[in-house]
Amino acid sequence: MNDNFIIGLDIGTSFVRAAIGEIYSDGSVGIRGVATRPSSTFMRLGVITNPQGAVECIKDVIHDVQVEANCIVKNCVTALGGDQIKGRDETGSIGIPPLNDKTNRTVTEDDIIKVLEAAKQIPVSPDRKLISEIPKEFIIDKIRGFTHETALNTIAARLEVDVYLITASSTQYENLRQCIERSDLVLRDVVLKTIACTDSCMLPEEQGAGSILIDMGGGTTDVLVVLKNAPICAFSIPIGGNRVTKDIVDMLSYDMGVSVSFETAEGLKIKYGSCWENAINDDMEIVIPGVGRSNPSVVITRSKFMSYIQPRMAEIFRKIYDHLDSTLENVDLAGSIVLTGGGANMSGAVELAAHIFNFCSVRVGRPSSLGWLEEKYRTPEFATAIGLVLSNGKVVSSVQEESKKTKKKSSSKQDGKGIAARIWDMFFGF
User: Fold this and answer.
1) Can you tell me the distance from the alpha carbon of 46 to that of 240, in angstroms, rounded to the nearest whole number?
2) Distance of alpha carbon 159 from alpha carbon 425, whole angstroms
3) Helix H or strand E segment including 215
4) The pLDDT of residue 292
5) Which of 136, 168, 373, 430 has the fewest CB atoms nearer than 10 Å to its CB?
6) 13 and 219 in contact (C-beta within 8 Å)?
7) Taking each helix axis from N to C terminus, what angle separates 349-357 and 302-327, rounded to the nearest 10 degrees?
8) How far is CA 94 from CA 89, 141, 355, 370, in A?
9) How confident is the model at residue 193 (pLDDT cuts 50, 70, 90)?
10) Given a cut of 60, is residue 251 above it in pLDDT?
């Protein structure tokens, strides 16, 4: 296996998407290929309900992306999302042993690793699995405001860290792990979906100022709030694009007396759907094909069709707004709302979100240009898969950098492991 290549595997309610990325020696990442397969036969609300179907689909999409990239890759990073995800704040603390002459010494990378490990030493119930720990802020001798970079080489007697811990359902984690390993892949990491989306679509200045990432999937809508470059809130709304499509089916039957399949309604939604009246430039007529001879086609305007879609889209955004309003008190978010996932493509989604949140800066999140055929992956649907590749690239780059440092200081080892090995264990040792 070539450790310079990685598969970002996004297993969603409606689709499985895969991206192969190459990690270059300077830490940058290039995309070599992407692929998509439908997943509705084995997923429901972000949960695997048919493991064998999942394995078959994963094998198919991996075959497709390897053909596209013209290379064989086994290392894989994937993500979890949905309402199984829970986040909470924790604190880790360690003393910094003084030097031999009893004077305080500076914080080292080894101390950073130890304090992060200390933050993870909290009781987790058997039905929960710790998947991520993200440092929010380092505290040195009770003085707050330090980042990883500024804490290093600072003289200290005590080092603390505030982290955001993310846990998932142990059962769902294990189902996911087994499906991936049965697909002949080597699972390197499991991260939160919205963190992957943030890595691929949110600008550093947005993360610093305070922004909201809303990943609009088929089964669920996942939310992550980032402030000062760290997550402060993660949750999920159990409503997604599939519910909007179901509304279209129901309303066409009730309002127009025409029966359509879910697949037909989904196609109409993608082609003509909107959730904001002013986003409709041409109030054209839409032909709705009926099913069977006794169910003739009907014609409705696009604005009428919008009235079937807007209430559910508005409900999704209002539920997110209400949750944030009750959870985040006195938190000033001056950045952006970034929409990702297939639902972000809906005409009027940006305008509706801006109206409900009373937010000036709302945009659709698209991954950056990373080479190859960028029109195939610079879409909100590929935010998670591309973000998974990028997140792994950052870890590998840090490991490579620390490896260089430890080679220069080969005698500096603790517990039989160098710093690079311990960083690797921190991210991949589960």
Assistant:
1) 10
2) 21
3) strand 211-216
4) 66
5) 373
6) yes
7) 40
8) 17, 11, 46, 40
9) very high
10) yes
Closest to 189 in 3D by CA, of 390, 392, 367, 23: 392
Q: What is the DSSP string of 224-286?
A: EEEETTEEEEEEEES--HHHHHHHHHHHHHHHH-----HHHHHHHHHHH-BS-GGG-S---EE
Measured between alpha carbons, how far is 12 from 38 in angstroms, rounded to an integer? 9
DSSP 44: E
Cα–Cα distances (Å) from 342 to 21, 265, 269, 381, in that order, read 22, 15, 11, 5
Any idea of the CA torsion for 272, 276, 280, 285, to the nearest 10 degrees?
Answer: 50
Give the separation between CA 86 and CA 176, rounded to whole angstroms: 17
Question: What is the helix (H) or strand (E) element at residue 230, kind and residue range?
Answer: strand 230-237
State the pLDDT confidence band at 412, using cuts at 50, 70 and 90: very low
pLDDT for res 414: 42
Q: For residue 273, which amino acid is it?
A: G
The answer to whether 327 and 302 are in contact (CB under 8 A) is: no
What lies within 8 Å, CB to CB, of 207 at 6+ separation is 198, 226, 227, 228, 229, 335
Amino acid in the structure at residue 11: I
CA distance 224 to 274: 25
Handedness of CA 138, 142, 143, 145 (dihedral sign): positive
The reply to whether the predicted model has a pTM over 0.85 is yes
Token output for 184: 């002949």
Q: Cα separation of 273 and 266, whole Å?
A: 9
Q: What burial letters (b/e) apply to 243-252, b meaning 16+ CB within 10 Å? A: bbbebbbebb
The set of residues, in sequence order, having a beta carbon less than 8 Å from that of 126 and lying 6+ positions away, is: 170
pLDDT band of residue 279 (cuts 50, 70, 90) is: confident
274 vs 13, 92, 137, 293, CA distance in Å? Answer: 22, 47, 41, 29
Pairing status of strand 86-95 against strand 158-169: antiparallel
Distance of CA 103 to the CA centre of its chain: 44
Strand partners for 16: 11, 37
- Mean pLDDT within 52-79: 95
What's the CA gap between 193 and 78, in Å, rounded? 8
